[in-house]
Amino acid sequence: MSAAIGFGKDLIGLEHLTAEQIRTILDVAEPFKEVSERAIKKVPALRGKTIVNLFFEPSTRTRVSFEFAEKRLSADTVNIAAMGSSVVKGETLVDTARNLEAMRIDMVVIRHSSSGAARFLAERIPSNVINAGDGQHEHPTQALLDLLTVRDRLGRIEGVRVCIAGDILHSRVARSNIWGLLKLGAEVAVCGPPTLVPPGIHELGVCVFRRLEEAIEWADVLNVLRLQLERMEAGYIPSLREYNRHFGITSARLGRAPRDILILHPGPMNRGVEIDSDVADGPHSVILHQVTNGVAVRMAVLYLLAGGAPERAEAAKRGTGDES
Ligand code: CP
Description:
It is a single chain. Helices cover about 35% and strands about 15% of the residues. The chain is an alpha/beta fold. The model has no long low-confidence stretch (mean pLDDT about 95). Phosphoric acid mono(formamide)ester binds near residues 133, 266 and 267. Phosphoric acid mono(formamide)ester (CP) binds near residues 59 and 61.
């Protein structure tokens, strides 16, 4: 990222970012929020840059959000999905990327089912690489938009009690959130069935609740994770009904909370499994606010990676030509 704030060339995860770097991304996202509210949603900050969105796993929010962010910054974009590309003929990830580079690209946004794929690529190509979710490792822009949403709604992150609830074991969102929240001074807990909470997770500095009722009593924010049904063949839970009965976020459970709890969910949701519809659509839910913030956060990441100075983000938003 921008040399001005000491980032490297890529955004692979939040584990190795400092609190100052994370705060800078959130601060740069602030002026970019307004661009999406205009009739003409475009500023010239990334004019002339070419960005490839390489999605080897399904995605709705992240893929579309990156594409909107790129287009709103005036970058030229190309979307590549595994299906329909030469990956299905056996081409490797690096060969795919090198062929794209031969056409002179500047950045790659990658989602991949293998943990470590983003770093693997970043070490082999000169373009900036942004991790849009790699296996069970990290999903940094999701955590950044979650942080921005908590900061918007509660006015701070430091000292806020955030419980990440559900399938922690398979979740790259959980890992990125834990790193980001702890660095910014939040108190962090996780809650889920023992089979879906990695042993030793407390060593990261989080506490573990076994019962959702305890977590609800403690938390200011619940970040509810999707039960990753596609990864559940190994029988981590007895049944979806059983899961909902013990770990589903219901309005009855939230009604017993000692305070209003902010409800986040990265999506896609399994309604009636990890979260009931009246909670997902209810007054404490900020799920769509998260999605809106996703575009601004991704604009900030792209702008900084392209060498934009944090203090010029306001000018970049105005499109005055004084943004670099
Ligand atoms: N939150 C998230 O990563 O959603 P998608 O899988 O739809 O991108």
